[in-house]
Design goal:
The structure holds two protein chains of two kinds. By secondary structure, chain A is an alpha+beta fold. Chain A is about 35% helix and about 20% strand. Chain A contains 13 helices and 14 strands. In chain A, strands 1, 2, 3, 4, 5, 10, 11, 12, 13 and 14 form a ten-stranded mixed β-sheet that branches. Chain A has a two-stranded antiparallel ribbon with strand order 6-7. A two-stranded antiparallel ribbon of chain A has the order 8-9. Chain B is α/β, with parallel strands linked by helices. In chain B, helix 10 runs antiparallel to helix 11 (about 265-280). Classes of the chains: A alpha+beta, B alpha/beta.
């Protein structure tokens, strides 16, 4: 089961996150650095972690802030960790935190370090908005202005259009299409109806609401006191318990008009938040007296042509990781799949079931099989909890481990898709509890 | 009924069109029959809220009428009757008491688009393969199923005339903007969206917003404005076709007739015009050309071909860059070699500029442009192209240089590597004279500009192996070229038949003709550019070189050489490349270079008469083609016609030199040549093949 014999075993000790808030709400005055700092601080506190033990910090982030390009370094220092611990930031769209965790996994497995904090952070309330190229050029040139009269030149040759700010595009760079449009197309291609999407989205909100009521999310969500008044945010705020199929059915398509099926109601929303996990080399963890939650057993990344299979990453990654580990879907007790869109998730589930998909794309004889809904995202998912791009991966891994303990399962499968037509899957195994 | 399947679901009737015998749907008589029966049924029991017409194929909606059918229209009235029958059918669709929706994915061309136009509404996918066009004009006919009537009524006069007269493709988003389609959806969602659209319009008819510009509305809203539009269109058409193509004016007539007399009469007029046009020699020739072009794109020896994934191109000039570009676009890896980084960078810019034009037209995404460009990799060292499976040299015309490159390639590349020369005149056998493996040497003669010119002339020597030929043809097929395979010799086929024509043009100037008179005469004849302009474009230096290469061949037939081109070259005239040739090229326009007349007797120019100029130029051209056929340089007259039309701009409506000679009658051509020989000497001696042929090149 280990990827390569002779490598060290990696265990997950713990994971936690800030509440996930809709962009523009409670965290609107925080940036990704502050969110990550809060998450790391909580992780250190709840594990009574001696800062000097941490060998490496790795964070994922998608929309980078110029002041904190290496947000991992700034946030871990801001959270009080040792100056002597190196830190780097990775980016791989919506699986950035997964990339961070896998990087940490490799460092530990190879014997480079023994303790890693990995995860991700994202603020969608504070995206960097730039001036247009022409105006930027002028502004840069203006740094060399000497006399006040030089400033007359600043606006020369600019049209009013050049002064309008430029908001970062959410379109796929390679295709120029929005992800929502691609999802709409994918849903139609795989045969996922609007009704099925709405029903799934509703189920996600209901599951999250139930998990919240039963206190299951409290295991991973750490309150944040938001400066300057230090009001305490304790819970996620994207869960819509009051939603209904009828309400969702009334929403208009958001991307493909007028006959598309993806709406604001069955897509994940822009979210602020950070999530981190604590990983250690097994024997080191035990000698330090930690009780691991799970082994990180195996992972892989997949990539396809962004023009065709933008959102099918999980179908590829899950099929291949099963093939590589020799496990079957029925061996897996806990599924934590990223929900970018209800249509995307359902399309992936359908592909996993499909013999045609397996033959055409994977050169396998059989589809992976059915992912039982009663094992999937039982504590809510990105549709209901939210999806801070850089952080979601750490939430998935944390929840998967917590659910393994709660549900007394053995294997958990994490999967997610990402822009650029990439996919990721990771297999966790519950740590034997004495 | 094998073409149509009717299914009813949730108050909707779905009519699926699927030709069981073909990969694509075309309109043919048997489909019409099926449709008529189906309509009987639909009219009798309209137990549905709306009818949706959709293709059962993923390849497209309907790609047009079955062109094979055209050859059968030999008698007057045949095509008209079929046209009227089609009109009745489409009229019945339009008159159905329930809304009819065409749901379109992939191409809807010609009759396919006309059928969609007869429906009440259209919904289409915004996929790249979805396109709309009425390409009938390219076959010398007009859209005969209501296209000249329904299209202008739907999208406006000017936009419709543009589509009708050019036959150009309109893609989904543009089609939506101009009102050609009412709704768009992504490919996989077509059925679902069509159903929802159909239910909507069955409840409440769709109101189409005004999409036309103010200018269009002012012009087209009244008879006076329309008259102006028609007049302008007629003028443009005349200018573009030199009056050689009968279809475009008839298209304008038909649209105009329909506007003044109404739909019903317009349709009858359209059918009559179609009937007349389809039987014109121009249309016959264009239709034959269409089939010949389709056939010439295939690799009929693919089982022998070695796959080529890595191509090397030697020489990053205009030709080399062009070959690299079209290959990279077909996902080949191309190693482009030149002497230094500067030459490579110029080539990169050239390719980038060209691809970027496609990006601006939204035919390509910036990302696809970048990826394509990345497949062209510049090197300055032959050793870095050792993995190439095929090497094309596109350096300047120097035999020794080509031989040394061949030796270098044989030293560095694998034993299977094919060496192709893009020479336009040097015999391939001479290039291969010292080759270790002459069986792997071949000629691949591309035409400039490579991305635009469809022809590829492939030249085999006595020693070229079948596998080498198959490999070269395989590459040409992948590049999407129309290919003719010819035998080696000075100038092969295309350059060899062009040379006497250019030579004759020079002689005409010496006799006192004016530059513009010669050019204008041949444009009127149907060439896209005149021969003198062509000399400037090709380059006077190249012309002089070709003259040298071919000199011996013509001398054997007793034809005197002419060294004017060499003298012009010595005097510093190169043509387009140094902006000094028969014309002077300024920043904006070109003008006659009067100075050059001193090489042609100077003084005031004489009027030699358009007919005389045309006759001498095309006959000397066609006669040389006949020599090539007789000597087995070309395999058959069809290759000869294709090469002349696609490579040299011989008028397509004439069908090529062999077709044209057939149409005039070989005896007549022979007589005319003899008369010219009597006046001007051996260069007009009829080719021996005229003696052997009974009555035509094609028939016997």
């Amino acid at each position: 089961m280990d990827m390569v014999p002779g490598r060290r075993r990696v265990v997950l000790i713990d994971g936690c996150r800030t509440p996930f808030l809709r962009a523009g709400s409670g965290f609107k005055n925080l940036n990704s650095y502050q969110l990550a700092r809060a998450a790391i601080k909580s992780l250190v506190r709840r594990n009574q972690l001696e800062p000097s033990l941490v060998g490496q910090v790795i964070l994922g982030s998608v929309i980078s802030n110029i002041q904190t390009s290496n947000v991992a370094r700034e946030a871990m220092l801001g959270a009080g960790l040792s100056y002597e611990t190196p830190a780097f930031t990775v980016t791989q769209a919506c699986i950035s935190a997964n990339a961070a965790i896998c990087n940490g996994f490799e460092l530990i497995a190879a014997g480079q370090v023994e303790v890693v904090i990995a995860g991700g952070t994202e603020s969608m309330s504070d995206i960097p908005i730039r001036f247009r190229k022409k105006f930027r050029e002028k502004l840069i040139a203006s740094q060399k202005y000497r006399k006040w009269s030089d400033y007359f030149g600043l606006l020369k040759g600019l049209s009013w259009r050049d002064l309008l700010p430029e908001i970062p595009s959410i379109t796929e760079f390679s295709t120029g299409r929005t992800m929502g449009r691609d999802c709409d197309r994918l849903a139609a291609r795989i045969g996922v109806s609007r009704e099925a999407q709405d029903r799934y989205a509703l189920a996600s909100h209901m599951a999250a609401a139930r998990a919240e009521r039963e206190g299951l999310l409290a295991e991973e969500v750490e309150p944040v006191a938001v400066p300057p008044r230090f009001e305490v945010v304790q819970k996620d705020n994207g869960i819509r318990e009051d939603s209904s199929v009828e309400k969702l059915a009334r929403l208009r398509p958001a991307f493909v008009k007028p006959y598309g099926t993806v709406t604001a109601g069955n897509a994940s929303f822009l979210t602020d938040g950070a999530a981190v996990v604590l990983m250690m080399e097994e024997s080191r963890a035990l000698s330090l007296g930690y009780r691991p939650k799970a082994y990180l057993r195996h992972y892989l990344f997949s990539a396809q042509d962004p023009r065709e299979d933008l959102l099918l990453g999980p179908a590829f990654a899950v099929s291949r990781i099963l093939e590589r580990t020799g496990l079957k879907l029925c061996d897996v007790d806990v599924f934590e799949f990223h929900e970018a869109f209800a249509g995307q998730l359902l399309a992936n589930l359908k592909c996993l079931e499909s013999k045609d998909f397996a033959r055409k794309y994977l050169k396998m004889e059989q589809g992976a099989g059915t992912v039982p809904l009663q094992k999937l995202n039982l504590w809510g998912g990105s549709l209901s909890l939210g999806h801070p791009f850089g952080a979601t991966g750490a939430r998935l891994v944390t929840t998967a481990a917590n659910r393994l303990l709660k549900e007394k399962g053995r294997y958990a499968m994490v999967a997610a898709c990402a822009a650029g037509a990439m996919g990721h899957a990771m297999l966790l195994e519950r740590y034997p509890q004495s | 009924m094998s073409f149509l399947t009717l299914t009813k679901a949730q108050d909707l009737a779905w009519l699926e069109i699927d030709d069981p015998d073909d990969k694509v749907n075309t309109l043919k008589e048997s489909l019409l029959e099926d449709f008529e029966q189906m309509l009987d049924q639909l009219e009798a029991v309209p137990d549905f809220k709306a009818l949706i017409l959709i293709s059962g194929k993923t390849s497209g909606f309907i790609v047009g009428a079955d062109i094979q059918m055209f050859a059968g229209f030999t008698d007057a009235g045949q095509a008209k009757n079929l046209g009227l029958r089609g009109h009745r059918l489409l009229g019945r669709i339009a008159a159905l008491p329930r809304p009819v929706i065409a749901a379109i994915h992939g191409p809807a061309l010609g009759g396919g688009l006309e059928m969609a136009l007869a429906c009440h509404y259209r919904i289409a996918t915004d996929d790249r393969q979805t396109k709309f066009a009425l390409p009938e004009v390219q076959l010398g006919v007009l859209p005969g199923l209501g296209g000249t009537q329904r299209l202008p009524r739907l999208i406006g006069l000017r936009t419709a005339l543009d589509m009708l007269l050019t036959g150009k493709n309109i893609y989904a988003h543009r089609a939506r903007k101009m009102g050609l389609v009412d709704r768009l959806i992504h490919g996989p969602g077509l059925r679902e969206a069509a159903a929802r659209f159909a239910l909507e319009v069955s409840k409440k008819p769709l109101k189409r917003g005004r999409r036309r510009s103010l200018v269009d509305r002012l012009l087209e809203g009244n008879p006076l404005g329309r008259a102006l539009v028609f007049r302008t269109a007629r003028k443009t058409v005349l200018k573009k076709t030199a009056g050689n193509y009968p279809a475009p004016p008839k298209i304008i007539d038909s649209v105009s007739f329909g506007f003044s007399k109404g739909l019903a009469k317009g349709l009858i007029y359209e059918a009559e015009q179609f009937d007349a046009l389809v039987r014109t020699p121009e249309s016959r020739n264009l239709v034959r050309l269409f089939f010949a072009m389709t056939a010439s794109k295939k690799n009929d020896r693919s089982h022998l071909a070695r796959p080529v994934e890595r191509l090397a191109v030697l020489g990053a000039g205009l030709m080399g860059s062009g070959i690299a570009e079209i290959s990279a676009q077909k996902e080949l890896w191309v190693t482009l070699k030149d002497l230094d980084e500067k030459a490579l960078a110029r080539s990169e810019k050239r390719i980038w500029d060209h691809l970027d034009r496609a990006v601006k037209k939204r035919a390509l995404t910036p990302f696809e442009r970048d990826r394509t460009l990345s497949r062209v990799q510049g090197v300055t060292d032959t050793a870095q192209m050792s993995k190439a499976e095929l090497v094309i040299e596109a350096v300047f015309e120097d035999l020794e240089l080509k031989r040394s490159l061949l030796a270098e390639v044989e030293a560095h590349c694998s034993r299977q590597c094919v060496f192709a020369s893009n020479t336009s005149s040097l015999p391939i056998a001479e290039i291969a004279a010292h080759a270790a493996h002459p069986d792997r040497v071949i000629g691949m003669h591309y035409f400039s500009p490579v991305p635009k010119m469809p022809l590829l002339e492939i030249i085999v020597t006595e020693q070229t192996s079948e596998q080498t030929l198959a490999t070269a043809v395989g590459l040409g097929a992948r590049q999407g070229k129309n290919m003719i395979v010819v035998k080696d010799g000075p100038g092969f086929y295309t350059t060899r038949i062009l040379a006497p024509m250019l030579n004759e043009a020079v002689l005409l100037l010496q006799e006192g003709a004016a530059i513009e008179a010669v050019d204008r005469a041949m444009i009127r004849f149907g060439f896209p550019v005149g021969p003198i302009t062509l000399m400037d474009e090709v380059g006077i230096d190249v012309g002089a070189h070709v003259g040298e290469v071919l000199g011996g061949l013509f001398a054997q037939r007793g034809i005197k050489g002419d060294n004017t081109m060499a003298r012009l070259h010595e005097a510093g005239y190169k043509g387009r490349k140094n902006n000094r040739g028969f014309y002077l090229y300024g920043r904006k326009r070109k003008r006659i270079n009067a100075e050059i007349y001193r090489f042609f007797g100077g003084g005031p120019r004489k009027n030699l008469g358009t007919a005389e100029i045309q006759e001498r130029l095309w006959l000397v051209f066609a006669n040389e083609a006949a020599y090539c056929l007789g000597e087995g340089i070309i395999r058959n007259p069809s290759d000869g016609d294709l090469g002349a039309i696609l490579g040299l701009g011989f008028p397509p409506f004439l069908g090529g030199p062999f077709r044209f000679m057939d149409q005039l009658g070989l005896r007549e051509v022979h007589d005319r040549l003899q008369k010219l020989r009597d006046r001007f000497g051996a260069r007009f001696s009829p080719a021996p093949v005229f003696e052997n042929q009974r009555c035509s090149f094609y028939g016997s």
